[in-house]
Amino acid sequence: MTRISTAVDIRQLRYFVVAAEQCSFRKAADYMRVQASSVSRGIRDLEDEIGASLFQRCCSGVTLTEAGKSFLEGATQVLAIIEREAQQVSRVGRGEKGRIRIGVFASLSSQFLNDLIETYATLYEDVELEFIDGVPERHVAGIRQGSLDVAFLPGTNDWVECACVHLWSERMFVVLPVDHPLRRKRQVSWHDLKSEIFLVNEIGPWTMFEKHVVRRFVELGYQPNVRLHSVDRENLLPLVALGHGLCVTPESVTRLRRPRLIYRPICQEIIAFRAVWSPRNDNPALRRLLSLSRAKAV
């Protein structure tokens, strides 16, 4: 088998294929808007590299030799692959194709986040969206390490080496069993909750909210009554329904109705949610998502 030198370039292959289609170097040059001498010289150099004549030349034009016929099929396939890959790379560069790894902290049922993801997926259907649940510290570590592109997190923390933008806000709610005395109130205050037991999830992503409860009680001079449970959030809520204590949650989670639970807003408690990402992240698909999120936040 003849080994083709790396000196063969894409331009030579294009000259060859178009000349074969046009049966003329001059017509190929006109089609490609180059000089006829460039086509002739490029094909001659190609023949020298592969060590075979590809065309029979005559006054009326050119025809493929047997070697040329054999070479045409492969050359056409190579150019098709290059064109296809170039288009794919171009789409990735424009953010129309690729992958975004998204960290979430609270429920994806947030209206803002739900609408954002739905709109983005419609506009850029070839971008794969991967969602990772976890606590903010883990998400921020992933963003710094490059294993995560962006995270949507509550709070106003300024994370070192990260960029942030405020996108939406939600009220904070307390989760009550259906027969709790506070069910009669349309909203509750921290004073109403000062004697309640609060269930704290040690391993799930709601830990930040329980820390907020403790901080609020301390600020108001109350001793918080906290019980730790090493269960995930799916098992924490049934404990509330069974009367073992209360917990807090952002407003978006209240849309997920659960048996024997009710939700009441806590007076003047608003949670800010922000997008957090690395300014060094050059993922074009991420830039599209951030641009869309800012537009929706206006």
Automatic annotation (TrEMBL):
Q: Name one GO cellular component term.
A: protein-DNA complex
Q: Which InterPro entries match?
A: LysR_HTH_N, LysR_subst-bd, WH-like_DNA-bd_sf, WH_DNA-bd_sf
- Domain HTH lysR-type stretches: 8-65
Q: Which Pfam families match?
A: HTH_1, LysR_substrate
Q: GO MF annotations for this entry?
A: DNA binding; DNA-binding transcription factor activity
Q: Which UniProt keywords apply?
A: DNA-binding, Transcription, Transcription regulation
User: What PROSITE patterns does the record tag this protein with?
Assistant: HTH_LYSR
Family named by the database record:
Belongs to the LysR transcriptional regulatory family.
Listed name of the protein: LysR family transcriptional regulator
